[in-house]
Structures are given as structure tokens and as C-alpha cells.
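Sequence only, no structure available. Ideas?
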Amino acid sequence: MSSIIFNIPEGYILDKKSSTRTAVVYKKVVSLPSTWESFCLKAEPSTRYILTYEGEITKEDSECLNPSLDRNVLPSEETAKAVRALIQLLNLREVYKEDDDPAYLCFYNVTIDRKSGEPRVINEAYPSLFSFNRADLAYKFHKNFKDLLKEASPLLF
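Reply:
I predicted one. C-alpha cells follow.
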């Protein structure tokens, strides 16, 4: 039996899944940020999408991110649209919650079906982001804001 010794380049690890008997594959080590500031320091220049105060989405190429000024910068237009819809839904939820009855011990969750991507209402044992104690309120929220729920669906599991 013979053995071969490889020197793995710094910043890389052996990719066991991609390596074969005839090819050794390395992959770059991903360094995950532990703070927003460290993310901004390592952010690569790229196109970013900005959600303005007026709710508009603008596109801009950025060389770097400023940790205190770029908190409304998003990685894609789809994410920016989903965040805008989520903000609207959260505000609407607060109004609907005023009419809810916490004495009910059921949770009717307005959620997104993972397979179809369509909004739906389900009865669950635990609350979620868009939970209501009354079924009629959950169905009304679902019916009235189906378009916003679909737009926010990339952020709603």
C-alpha cells in the first residue's frame, strides 16, 4: 500500500463529497461573520438594493458597506420587495390584533405553503408571526392581504 501526502492550501479544506479516487478537491473555508460590523468589513463590492424611506427600491453598486448607514441595504431586488411587503404586513397585523381575543387558546396561523408557495391558514398548537386566536380574523387577514403575503413569501417559511 502506498500513500501520497498533500499539502492543503491555507484557507481551504478537503471537499470529501467532491473528491474521488482520481481527484482531490479543495474548497475555500467560509468565514461566517459574528457581528454586523464584521460582515460590513468583509462585504465584497456588488450591486445592492436599497429600501428608501418612501418605500421605493433603488439599485446601486457599492464598494463597501458602512455599518451605521447601510442597514437598509439588501442583497437582491426580490429580498427588498419581500422586506417591504413584510413591513406592511407587520403594521396590518397590529391593527388586526386589536380585534383578536386572547381568551381563545387556539392559534390560526397565516402561513405560506412550502410546496405551492400559496398563502394559507392552518390551526396550530403554537403561534407564529401571523397568528390569530380567532379563525375568522385569520381568514380575513389571509383574504385581504394575499398579495402581500405572496410578495413576502421568500422570508416566510
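The CA atoms of residues 98 and 113 lie 26 Å apart.
Hope that gets you unstuck.
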